[in-house]
Write a structure and sequence with these properties.
The complex is a heterodimer of chains A (480) and B (635).
Chain A lengths: L3 E4 L3 H13 L3 E7 L6 H5 L2 E6 L9 H11 L3 E3 L9 H10 L2 E2 L4 H8 L1 H10 L14 H15 L3 E9 L2 E6 L2 H19 L4 E5 L5 E9 L5 E13 L2 E7 L6 H17 L4 E9 L5 E7 L6 H8 L3 H9 L16 E8 L1 E2 L5 E2 L7 E3 L6 E5 L14 E9 L2 H14 L1 E3 L5 H7 L3 H4 L7 H4 L11 H16 L7
Chain B lengths: L9 H10 L4 E4 L7 H6 L2 H13 L4 E6 L2 H7 L5 H11 L4 E6 L12 H11 L5 E4 L10 H9 L3 E7 L8 H15 L4 E6 L6 H14 L4 E6 L6 H10 L4 E4 L13 H10 L9 H11 L20 H4 L3 H14 L5 H15 L9 H14 L9 H7 L13 H8 L3 H8 L10 H12 L5 H9 L1 H14 L7 H4 L10 E5 L5 E6 L10 E7 L2 E7 L16 H9 L2 E3 L4 E6 L6 E2 L4 E7 L2 E6 L4 E6 L6 E2 L4 E7 L2
Helix pairs in contact in B: 3-5, 3-12, 6-7, 6-21, 8-9, 9-10, 10-11, 15-16, 18-19, 21-22
The chains are: A alpha+beta (480), B alpha/beta (635).
Chain lengths: 480, 635
């Protein structure tokens, strides 16, 4: 292809993008902020541009990134996820600068990013949705609408910032008093966070499964799906573990959801890769939630089960190539699990462990194993960015095989320095509900025992701990 | 004649012993050497020896009791009950024997009656032969144990502790035997407990002969130590005069002050036409072959003094107490005065205090008193609490004569007669509320204890709790061989350690580097069964948790003491703070008492002054250099 593409992101996704760009015989340009100067994506890229001191503000600075792109004379920009990925202003700035934005057009991003607009598009297309309101009117009128909605559909009710997303700007209200009290607070917060004080209501689906469909569309309007993912295992609305395909034991329902996703994407005139998110309630009703107009963290599980390189396709689609395969070519083979290995202390409310040095990094390998990471031994984790260190994705022919494979990989993984989510995941892979695929978004709350783990597991682990004491102290401290 | 197998009813055991034509041997694995060494033998080693020992055909294996309940938990981190259970699995044929200190059970102080009975009940299913003694030969001190053992249907083996001297006549001992038989009835084994290895072969022969003449049906078990190198002689005479059971140990692990080797006893007695009943000599030899190579890993615990101690006939300090006494002398910096203490002062103290038996806890009282008499300048100037209790009669009456009045005056004060009248006599120790104890233990552990855990807790409260918590954290560490468990100076990078877990699966640990990282932590890297593992160790222990040990030399500790900064000289428990803040002390006054392995030692003030601050707490384990209290010198 011989193009030059700027990667407007950092961390593991920057490396994922650089790899795809280089596999397309193109040149990858990295950008970075000063606190990120030890990041591995800078070394792997063909060129790298320092944006400024940051932190975060330069990765979010449209002008600086466009300037860097112009200076480097790139053909396109890939935004990754987070930062500017779903910012329609950024997509528009690219379009205006004559640089290809690898993603949907700015209008599509804007439409789908506005929850209320998105809902009206989906309603018009007949997509099943959680009952909800338009943007609440300002003042007492909006309060009255909210009360009416609560009375009709019952509590709890979710109060959402229209411009929110990624789990931000959402609050649950249990009754009318709380709802009325929260509306002005939510508005003030939304204004501060998203520069838009619009809020709306949605009925709460209790303990749903979070199931999403990867879609991909070319500029001829050909829109395909790459089957389902389940992202139910979350903490505070942040995904931790994702699997593909969904473990819902109803193939007809899943097929229907996939078709609905394609219909939703078409209704939004979707182009490039995206994700249509659904909730499935305990009675197997499903509801449209939103469309994410970016590459997802968890795209790896879909790639593993379909064999389709989503990022490579994104880039080619952006350069005007048509999709090179048909829906019937998309075959799901086996199962995939992704675990986000974060530098966090699960026992301490997933407190980030930023600022610590990775004194040992020994990764795993073997059949069916994929790693998307960016840290290395000796790397000091910056405190100012997110805590994701590496994504462990495994593929297996059967579900049981996949679970045992991910368990084996977790046992093989050694990261010393920061606390990580690995020992917590080791508890999950032994937990019967996880093994049987019986989990929804309440999984962590309903399985508090998962948080009871020791660093050293099993008899030999305990004994090895004593031997370490004998070794470290130069004598057995318990036998003095 | 045939061997007696485990599971034989007690009455049947006694009958077979009475009918024996020949003699039986007890393997005293628990008691096979001088104090610290014998207390360190790991279950791992005993399990290695188990199969051959079981084939060897002993009457019994003494494997529990004495200090072992305590040191199993404290030094080896093994559950004393689990130990017996695991050994029983590998040794189905051999009776297990314990040593019980009468009213002191497996500890160092008298316990309430209900604790004694409860403890015996809990141990009885695991222990077939109960050897019970009292250091004053005060039979009432053994009574509760004897009764419970009989109730449990186990073999009762009460002791007469043996010593030498003008009072220690056959007629005295025969009287004691009669006292015992009055309590137990005839179906017992009587033990002659010659813990010091005292007396000549002829004297032991006379005693056995005297007992057998008076009580022809009484089964006699002779127990001795080879401290002077002559216990084979005493054993020979005992058997020739009618003793039915004698004690010996595995040659690879016995040595100074332990019992003599089994094989030597067999060979000597064979010449006299005496058969060792049930013994398989091949298995006796093989037992030592199996464990011989393990002894090197216990090297650090071997006695500082090698060779034999024929002067035991003068100082009478038993083999068991010798090691810890010398260790104390070494750590306390008075090794050069040991000869004076042992050979001059100790016999004098012994005579003055009534010539009772130098065995736990009496041996510790005698030694401690002799040490403070020599080092303290003024004889009986700094008496220990235990000595006070002895004079008050708390342990029981003096067997022959009371110490002279001047000693009472020294120890109890000018109005000693009044003190004696008011506080004297065997203390009636109130029963304690076992349910409450169990509840307390429940709270300390955070979970419901079982009765066995309660029994351990009642013996040694703090150490039992520490042990139970240790096991939760580190697991069953008896699977580790002494080469790992007692490793000194750490391992080398690249060393590969092998051990088998409780299921018999072998594990491999490869030792990696231990770099100090930026945080100051040391990270120890291992490959555990080929999987990399790491362990972080904090650089400086957090404040208030455990202060970093100041490696003070003895001289530095002494210098500090001269300046009024009183610190622990050796590692041990602080059992008494004898002064209060604000109190005026003189040079030589006792300010505290420490205890290490049954041995109490007074801490004395080196200066005159006022106690200004007490920083140590009673019951705490102190390391050398740990602060105890401060004395402001009188200017």
């Amino acid at each position: 292809m011989k193009k030059k593409i700027l990667v407007a992101n950092r961390g593991e996704i920057a490396i994922r993008l650089i790899r795809a760009i280089q596999e397309l015989d193109s040149t990858a340009v990295a950008v970075y902020e000063k606190p990120d100067e030890r990041s591995r994506h800078i070394r792997l890229a063909d060129e790298a541009v320092l944006l400024g001191d940051g932190p975060r503000s330069d990765y979010l600075n449209i002008r600086k990134i466009i300037t860097a792109a112009k200076n480097a004379e790139v053909d396109a920009i890939h935004p990754g996820y987070g930062f500017l990925a779903e910012n329609p202003e950024f997509a528009r700035a690219c379009e205006e600068a004559g640089i290809i934005f690898i993603g949907p057009p700015s209008k599509v991003i804007a439409d789908l990013g506005n929850k209320v607009v998105a809902r009206s598009i989906m309603a018009a297309a007949g997509i099943p949705m959680v009952p909800g309101t338009e943007n609440l009117e300002k003042g007492p009128k909006g309060i009255a609408t909210a009360k009416e909605f609560g009375a009709k559909y019952g509590y709890p009710v979710m109060l959402k910032a229209t411009s929110g997303g990624g789990g931000r700007g959402i609050r649950l209200t249990e009754n009318e008093d709380e709802l009325v009290r929260q509306i002005p607070i939510a508005r003030a917060e939304a204004l501060a966070a998203f520069d838009d004080d619009s809020v709306y209501l949605e009925k709460v689906v209790v303990n749903p499964k979070h199931v999403e469909v990867q879609i991909i569309a070319d500029n001829t309007g050909k829109t395909l799906h790459l089957a389902t993912r389940d992202c139910s295992i979350q903490r505070r609305n942040q995904k931790l573990i994702e699997i593909a395909p969904s473990r819902v034991a109803n193939p007809a329902l899943l097929e229907e959801i996939c078709q609905t996703a394609v219909k939703a994407a078409k209704a939004a005139n979707y182009f490039n890769a995206g994700t249509v998110e659904f909730l499935i309630d305990e009675d197997m009703n499903y509801y449209f939630m939103e469309i994410n107009t970016r590459i997802q963290v968890e795209h790896t599980v879909t790639e593993m089960v379909t064999g389709i390189d989503i990022v490579r396709n994104q880039i080619k689609l952006a350069f005007g190539y048509p999709l090179s395969f048909e829906q019937e070519d998309v075959k799901v083979r086996g199962h995939a699990i992704e675990m986000r290995i974060n530098a966090e202390d699960p026992k301490n409310n997933f407190m980030p462990e930023g600022g610590k040095k990775v004194s040992v990094y020994r990764s795993t390998g073997g059949f069916g194993v994929r790693l998307d990471g960016f840290v290395y031994q000796g790397y000091e984790i910056p405190e100012v960015y997110d805590s994701l260190l590496v994504k462990l994705t495994v593929h297996g022919f059967t579900w049981d095989e996949t679970v045992s494979r991910v368990k084996r990989c977790l046992q093989n993984f050694v990261i010393a320095g920061p606390k990580t989510t690995i020992p917590f995941y080791l508890n999950i892979v032994d937990e019967p509900d996880f093994i049987s695929g019986n989990f929804n978004t309440s999984y962590l709350d309903t399985h508090p025992k998962l948080f009871h783990y020791e660093e050293a597991k099993g008899e030999v682990g305990k004994l090895a701990r004593l031997i370490a004491e004998i070794h470290h102290h130069g004598k057995n401290p318990f036998a003095s | 004649m045939e061997r007696i197998f485990q599971g034989t009813p007690a009455a049947e055991v006694i009958r077979k012993l009475r009918d024996a034509d020949g003699y039986y041997i007890t393997n005293t694995a628990r008691d096979l050497s001088q104090s610290d060494f014998k207390n360190r033998i790991l279950l791992h080693t005993d399990l290695l020896a188990a199969e051959e020992r079981d084939r060897a055909g002993y009457y019994s294996l003494e494997i529990t009791g004495g200090a072992s309940i305590h040191v199993d938990m404290l030094r080896k981190q093994v559950d004393p009950f689990v130990k017996l259970k695991l050994l029983r699995e590998k040794m189905p044929n051999t009776m297990f024997q314990t040593l019980c200190r009468g009213v002191n059970l497996f500890g160092y102080r008298p316990y309430p009656q209900n604790v004694i009975r409860f403890t015996v009940k809990e141990f009885a299913p695991y222990v077939d032969v109960w050897r019970t003694f009292d250091f004053l030969n005060h039979v009432p001190n053994m009574q509760a144990v004897l009764e419970e053992v009989a109730l449990a249907g186990k073999v009762n083996e009460p002791c007469i502790c043996f010593s030498t001297g003008p009072e220690h006549t056959n007629s005295f001992y025969l009287g004691k035997v009669q006292e015992i038989l009055d309590v137990t009835g005839p179906d017992i084994v009587l033990c002659i407990k010659n813990h010091g290895g005292l007396g000549t072969p002829q004297r032991i022969g006379e005693l056995v002969d005297g007992i057998k003449q008076r009580f022809p049906d009484l089964v006699v078990h002779y127990h001795g130590h080879n401290t002077d190198g002559n216990d084979v002689g005493r054993i020979t005479e005992a058997v020739l005069k009618g003793a039915t059971i004698v004690d010996a140990a595995d040659s690879a692990f016995t040595g100074f002050y332990g019992p003599p080797p089994v094989l030597t006893v067999i060979q000597v007695l064979k010449e006299y036409g005496k058969e060792a009943i049930g013994i398989n000599e091949d298995a006796v030899i093989r037992t030592s072959d199996v464990i011989r190579d393990e002894r090197q890993y216990y090297q650090q615990f071997e006695s500082q003094i090698k060779g034999f101690q024929p002067t035991v006939q003068i100082h009478k300090l038993p083999g068991g107490a010798m090691g810890s006494s010398l260790e104390q002398a070494s750590k306390g910096g008075f090794l050069n005065r040991v000869s004076e203490i042992l050979h001059k002062e100790l016999p004098r103290v012994q005579q003055e205090l009534g010539n009772f038996w130098s065995v736990t806890p009496g041996s510790q009282i005698l030694w401690t008193t002799a040490v403070s008499n020599v080092l303290g300048g003024e004889r009986y100037g700094t008496p220990s609490g235990d000595l006070k209790n002895l004079l008050l009669g708390k342990y029981g009456p003096f067997p022959f004569h009371q110490p002279p009045e001047w000693i009472y005056k020294k120890v109890l004060g000018e109005d000693w007669q009044k003190v004696l009248d008011e506080e004297g006599g065997v203390e009636a120790i109130q029963d304690i509320d076992l349910a409450q104890e169990k509840a307390d233990l429940h709270e300390k552990l955070g979970k419901e204890p079982d009765n066995k855990q309660l029994a351990l807790y009642l013996q040694h409260p703090q150490d039992a709790v520490d042990y139970i918590k240790f096991e939760e954290e580190y697991g069953m560490v008896h699977v580790l061989p002494p080469s790992i468990f007692f490793r000194q100076g750490g391992f080398d990078i690249g060393d590969t350690l092998y051990f088998s877990d409780t299921q018999g699966k072998e594990h491999i640990i490869e030792i990696g580097p231990s770099p100090v990282v930026d945080t100051g932590e040391t990270v120890v890297y291992f490959n555990v069964d080929h999987y990399p593992r790491y362990y972080n160790f904090a650089p400086i222990l957090a404040e208030g948790v455990e202060p970093a040990r100041q490696a003070l030399s003895k001289e530095e500790i002494m210098d500090l003491a001269m300046a009024g900064d009183v610190r622990a000289v050796f590692a041990g428990n602080l059992v008494e703070i004898s002064v209060e803040e604000g109190q005026v002390v003189k040079k030589g006054d006792r300010v505290a008492v420490m205890e290490a392995m049954k041995m109490q030692t007074s801490v004395v003030s080196e200066i005159e002054g006022i106690v200004t601050a007490i920083s140590a707490k009673i019951g705490k384990t102190l390391q050398p250099g740990d602060k105890i209290l401060k004395i402001d010198p009188d200017e």
